[in-house]
């Protein structure tokens, strides 16, 4: 069969993404953020857990509004860090690129001229 092995295509695609400078920088930022803001992250995650649990009870939970405000401030504080903002920006760009590629692949596969029997095995 003259087809292309899908596993090789996927491996090549993942390798292509993970060798790009943007992806490498994303990993670097993750390490920096985890080390530099360890206490802030723990505090944020703890408060997030409390808020999510409390929000299940809605108006029946005492001081839910105060907890919501505190959680919002903690999130804003963490997400305003330059490294965190850059991390999310790079993540967004990488996701957009992947979504664009998925859209292109979908268009190719849905094209009536596409012959899956000779292109992919």
Structure report:
Helices cover 79% and strands 0% of the residues. It contains six helices and no strands. It starts with 5 loop residues before the first helix and ends with a helix. The model has no long low-confidence stretch (mean pLDDT 90). It has helices at 6-18, 21-36, 38-55, 64-79, 82-110, 116-119. It has two domains: 1-36 and 81-121, no CATH class; 38-80. With 121 residues, the protein is an all-alpha fold.
Structure, briefly:
Helices cover 79% and strands 0% of the residues. The chain is an all-alpha fold.
Which helices and strands, and how do they pair?
Blueprint: H1 6-18, H2 21-36, H3 38-55, H4 64-79, H5 82-110, H6 116-119
Helix pairs in contact: 2-5, 3-4
Question: Given the helix and strand composition, which structural class is it?
Answer: mainly alpha
Element-by-element helix/strand order = HHHHHH
Q: What portion of residues belong to β-strands?
A: under 5%
- Which outline best applies? elongated
Total DSSP E strands: 0
Uncertain runs with pLDDT below 50, 5 residues or more?
none
| Mean pLDDT across all amino acids | 90
- Largest sheet descriptor: none
Domain count: the total is 2
Q: What is the overall number of helices?
A: 6
Gyration radius, to the nearest Å? 22 Å
